[in-house]
Predict the 3D structure of the following.
Amino acid sequence: MSLMTLDKLSVFRGDCPVVNAVTLALKSGDFVGLIGPNGAGKTTLMRAALGILEHTGSSSLSVMSQSDRAKQAAWLPQVREIAWGLTVRDLVGLGRLPFGPVQKNDKHVEAAIIKMELSALSDRIAMQLSGGEQARVLIARALAQDTSILMADEPTASLDPANQISTLKTFSELAEAGKGIIASIHDLGLAARYCTKLALLDRGKLVAFGPADEVLTPDNLRTVFSIEAHYEKTKQGVIFQPLSVLKKSNKNFDQGDTLK
Amino acid sequence: MMRLGLFLISLVTLLFLCSLLIGHTQAPLYTSLKALILGEGPLGTVMQDIRLPRAILAALVGGSLGLSGAAMQGYLRNPLAEPGLIGISGSASLGAVISLQTGFASMFWLALPLSALGMSVLAVFLIMLLAGKQGRSLTLILAGIAISALAGAMTSLVLNLSPNPYATAEIVFWMMGSLADRSFDHVWIALPFCVVGAMMILLLGPALNALTLGEDTAQTMGINLVKTRYALVIGVAAMIGATTAVAGAVGFVGLVVPHILRRWVKSQPSRLMWASMLGGAALVLAADILVRLVLPDRDLKLGVVMAILGAPLFLHLIYKTRAELS
């Protein structure tokens, strides 16, 4: 079942296309890893798809009304913003806002707290937790929204290895349960192991979309990332390790990943 | 949470009664209340035409300032935000000052508040024009700062060029903010604006809660940022324009009250608005009682007392916050 379709979605900064005619379909059960170098347009693509950034072309989400969209797709931005000293439970409860006044002991909130292993922290002030714990709280907030689509911008950034793995495992379980997930991920090894599909962006264009072994080809790695890597299918899943940087790099790495 | 609500409501009620009973003419509780209801004799006139409107205005002004402060802080996600930030109180003051200077204020009793309100409306249009269509908060702050600075400069200009020292003194005293010698006419001017403004702002509860997670996330949770900003600016402007028009500029309430009450509502922006509305009413009622008790014959100004009370309170809060952070 198709959850979201993007058709020739483009975002312009001035005359320069930051996202260039991306066409993509997200199906139920997909866990799409959005990969690409810094400045490839990953964040911009997701924000445009969600309809919070002006764009041309179409996204099936952005044509919905804002309140319908909030019931269809949840967004987890990279910046972990928490303004006030709310408790973990109240913060996770914010995920229920699109569905009217937040009820006490809402089952979605409790389920999200348990899923992200936050039960012991549920009465603590979220702001005072460690960065990794805050990341889990914000993921729980997005889960509490209980939407069929979840988009996450670098959900594993600044997490320790155990938390990175368990976050991606949670996402892949959610996808198995029928949701559609898009997450931008810089660690290609983790992306190759946990995502069902990879979408490779290069300077705003979608250059490859499919299973990891079709996307992480030596050719794509060279032209897009300017790296060489080891790729092996083992009994414990895919092992992917970047090995060296190839000389040629005439690309601009410091464009910044986000477009506000 | 319920207990905090009950406590604040009883506090406001108690202070409201005190405000009715304390003043130049002293009378026992029973006699005063009887005079208030029946309106008989000179005490009846004092109660019905002087004390009652004054107490109502104190609650109205305080409630508006507290609520606007909590809303501004919630919207901007900044504990230092206050209602004056978007330039409405400055503009309302400018309107009043111009009317005092030109003598328009003495032509009919509504002239001063109407000038103040008119200038607030003008300021709202200017802010909306400057802040742009996108609904982001940063441009709103910048526009507000620009308007505040402009209104402040124009007010100084009027004082600077004022040829009449009496008018200058009148202006300076007016700007200190006061609730003395107000009548029900003032209540009727301010009340509709305050009620409509408060309703617009209180409906923003879910939006402000969602903004805890930032503007991007709030948008994907179904919050329309553009509508939210319109409602916020118009609601705050209605309340602050109207209260400044009838009472002058009273500072610190919108800044301090949300600060004090935040911990008691578990930092939830929506609940903080209700609590700050009641807390602001209580604080201004208390300060207005103090004005009458401390120097009854010297016409001590409410805004002055508020600042003298507010500044140390704020310093104490900074000290406490610093201790919590370390």
